[in-house]
């Protein structure tokens, strides 16, 4: 269970946060001032500290310095009021993972905390990998193979080796990079790896999901705004460009941006300056841009949906992310890695996969790619009662892959293994299973047709994006 320490002299804020995070599976401690917080850190290890910027006996800057100096493995998120946002951005450059502003919103808090803990574990694994190998003298031009945990694991397939070669080539440069690939292939993990291997590694890495942005909010999210600059602008907001200044800005699903926002982006990228909405002051930028897309941007250009000049600004270097089904033996290497992570997370001791499961994994299409594999292994680890993952704990769409008709690429031995390995009854006469199977099949088909663009898929399926995410989660695609 992940451990979080909340340091806030507003007792009610600490209590509410503690209850909320406990309900979401975290082990939480609270401290009412900086001194009490440091005492807690002396007694126990924490994955993350949520620290208010203004404390009765110190401030966020001093707390960050102390925590990073004494407990470098512990991540820090600053809680701040709107008047302290500028300082919060400076704290990010000093080593804080992120900041969250009051009033606190549950979804924002949970998302920020989850990403912060994942990043801390990634950095620890990088350090462990570095120290576990014999020391050797390297020049400043040599690139360490820093591979992030979670969705990006060193593979042995030809496709994986080519991917790592390209990461090594482009990381030390300041090139803008386009990462191409299907949904779930680990594009953000590759972007983080490029950042961690660059000279900007000690500067912010800011990720932004362009697919979830409305046309109205996009400009504010990118460029920020001043208090009172428009109706509803109740406070000054720092945009993602400004937050990433000196570091790397990662833009995911960039093909979903409106044409107007693309024009504004082009100006910012060309001039290397940003101006908040409602401000006359221009801020100089030094930001490396990495974008990811599962769309064919060339096709978007031809159809007038994506600006060609912006595409060429971004496309100084491109990396193709191979789908999981093209990575051969990497599938089981990744599965073993996710099993190890799930054991640690769930405090389980599942040691292996049955031969039937291995055969099934190697022949399944993995339309959700690495993300789907990770979720399947986590779920199977939770459901497994012994030491071995068997067919009966796999989701129906995987264990009955051949029956469902999703492009059966299995041998007869594989098919019989699945049939024998699953003790579930034949679902074809069960109306509930039949309805769910038809729904899952429809969702998968539409996602494939739009190359896993979730915004387009939701439109075609006539459901909102949130409903689609929930249904994808139900079939381990999210």
Topology:
Layout: E1 3-7, H1 11-23, E2 27-31, H2 34-43, E3 48-52, H3 60-70, E4 75-80, H4 85-94, E5 98-101, H5 106-131, H6 158-170, E6 177-180, H7 187-196, E7 205-209, H8 215-223, E8 224-225, E9 237-238, H9 240-243, E10 248-252, H10 259-271, E11 273-274, E12 283-284, E13 288-293, H11 297-302, H12 308-314, E14 317-320, H13 330-346, E15 352-353, H14 355-363, H15 369-383, E16 388-389, H16 396-399, H17 401-404, H18 412-421, H19 431-449, H20 454-461, H21 465-474
Parallel strand pairs: 1-2, 1-3, 3-4, 4-5, 6-13, 6-14, 7-10, 10-13, 15-16
Antiparallel strand pairs: 8-9, 11-12
Commentary on this structure:
There is one protein chain. With 478 residues, the protein is α/β, with parallel strands linked by helices. It folds into three domains: 3-120, 3-Layer(aba) Sandwich (Rossmann fold), CATH 3.40.50.2300; 148-322, Rossmann fold (3-Layer(aba) Sandwich), CATH 3.40.50.300; 325-474, Helicase, Ruva Protein, domain 3 (Orthogonal Bundle), CATH 1.10.8.60. It has 21 helices and 16 strands. Strands 2-1-3-4-5 form a five-stranded parallel beta sheet, with helices on both faces. A five-stranded parallel beta sheet has the order 7-10-13-6-14. Strands 8-9 form a two-stranded antiparallel ribbon. Helix 19 crosses helix 20 (454-461) and helix 20 crosses helix 21 (465-474). The longest helix is centred in the first third of the chain and has 26 residues, at 106-131. It is globular.
């Amino acid at each position: 269970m992940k451990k979080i320490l909340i340091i806030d002299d507003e007792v009610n804020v600490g209590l509410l946060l503690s209850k909320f995070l406990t309900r979401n599976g975290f082990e939480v401690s609270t401290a009412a001032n900086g001194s009490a917080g440091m005492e807690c850190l002396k007694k126990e290890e924490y994955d993350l500290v949520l620290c208010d910027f203004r404390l009765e006996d110190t401030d966020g800057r001093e707390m960050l310095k102390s925590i990073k100096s004494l407990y470098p493995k512990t991540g820090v998120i600053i809680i701040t009021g709107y008047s302290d946002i500028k300082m919060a951005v400076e704290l990010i450059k000093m080593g804080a993972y992120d900041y969250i502003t009051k009033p606190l919103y549950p979804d924002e808090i949970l998302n920020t905390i989850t990403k912060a803990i994942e990043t801390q574990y990634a950095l620890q694994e990088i350090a462990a990998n570095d120290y576990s190998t014999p020391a050797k003298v390297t020049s400043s031009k040599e690139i360490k193979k820093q591979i992030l945990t979670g969705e990006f694991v060193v593979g042995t397939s030809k496709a994986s080796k080519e991917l790592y070669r390209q990461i090594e080539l482009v990381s030390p440069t300041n090139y803008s990079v386009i990462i191409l690939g299907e949904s779930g292939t680990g594009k953000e993990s590759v972007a983080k790896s490029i950042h961690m291997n660059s000279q900007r590694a000690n500067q912010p890495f800011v990720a932004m999901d362009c697919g979830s942005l409305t046309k109205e909010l996009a400009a504010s999210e990118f460029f920020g705004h001043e208090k009172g600059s428009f109706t509803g602008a109740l406070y000054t907001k720092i945009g993602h460009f400004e937050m990433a200044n000196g570091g790397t800005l990662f833009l995911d699903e960039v093909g979903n941006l409106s044409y107007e926002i693309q024009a504004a982006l082009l100006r910012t990228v060309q001039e290397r300056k940003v101006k908040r909405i409602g401000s006359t002051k221009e801020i100089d930028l030094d930001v490396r841009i990495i974008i990811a897309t599962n769309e064919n941007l060339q096709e978007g250009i031809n159809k007038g949906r994506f600006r060609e000049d912006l595409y060429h600004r971004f496309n100084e270097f491109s990396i193709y992310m191979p789908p999981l089904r093209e990575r051969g033996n990497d599938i089981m290497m990744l599965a073993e890695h996710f099993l190890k992570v799930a054991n640690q997370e769930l405090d389980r001791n599942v040691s292996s996969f049955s031969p039937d499961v291995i055969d099934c994994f190697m022949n399944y299409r993995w339309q959700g790619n690495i993300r789907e594999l990770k979720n399947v292994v986590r779920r199977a680890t939770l459901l497994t009662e012994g030491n071995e993952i068997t067919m009966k704990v796999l989701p129906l769409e995987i264990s009955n892959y051949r029956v469902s008709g999703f492009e059966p690429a299995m041998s007869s031995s594989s098919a019989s293994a699945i049939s024998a390995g699953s003790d579930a009854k034949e679902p074809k006469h069960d109306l509930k299973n039949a309805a769910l199977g038809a729904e899952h099949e429809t969702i998968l088909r539409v996602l494939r047709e739009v190359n896993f663009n979730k915004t387009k898929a939701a439109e075609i399926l006539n459901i909102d994006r949130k409903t689609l995410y929930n249904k994808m989660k139900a079939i381990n695609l999210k």
